[in-house]
Amino acid sequence: AQSVAQPEDQVNVAEGNPLTVKCTYSVSGNPYLFWYVQYPNRGLQFLLKYITGDNLVKGSYGFEAEFNKSQTSFHLKKPSALVSDSALYFCAVRDSSYKLIFGSGTRLLVRP
Amino acid sequence: GAGVSQSPSNKVTEKGKDVELRCDPISGHTALYWYRQRLGQGLEFLIYFQGNSAPDKSGLPSDRFSAERTGESVSTLTIQRTQQEDSAVYLCASTPPSGGSYNEQFFGPGTRLTVL
Lengths: 112, 116
Fold this sequence. Notes:
The structure holds two protein chains of two kinds. Chain A is built from no helices and twelve strands. By secondary structure, chain A is mainly beta. In chain A, a hairpin with a 6-residue loop joins strand 10 and strand 11. In chain B, strands 2, 4, 5, 8, 9 and 10 form a six-stranded mixed sheet that branches. Chain B is built from no helices and ten strands. By secondary structure, chain B is mainly β. Chains A and B meet through strand 5, strand 6, strand 10 and strand 11 of A and strand 4, strand 5 and strand 9 of B.
């Protein structure tokens, strides 16, 4: 069965520093990987996805993610964090079906 | 254009009562999903509608949960005889017809259900 793991409940970074939010997955077949962000009292917003092609995927708000097949990882990154990036981030995976399997989420806190 | 909308935004009910949650997907989106998000947890898949095909109900946690969709528009999630463990945020999402499984899902703001 497919699954997603986000090993960190919370990530703390200083504004201007690079950030990484970790995600590992387990699927049978080719993985389709997604990152979503959730701001307080709002629905999830799509950030980026990996379907095929280049392992480095660029998305919204300056975020990018690196697909690593050998490590079954899809870590979210940003070169320079902003205070406004503070939110809850979810990694999700879908195999050949249509369902998204979500990780438990990682809270990102960017301090000024 | 308009995004996915959900109503009500908040619902407080007493244990044992029935509730109905509504989702209006983005116009033209053929696929519609319901998820449940318990406090501090990720999203759990509940049910999936795709056009006129039979819905995938495999994620519904019990027979107290049911959902309907009228054509390719509004969907209603009904929870009968609510229990305290049903308290959660219920999220709806939709995707356009092209692209299949590759499409990202567009989420509504959710309905926060509190069962007293």
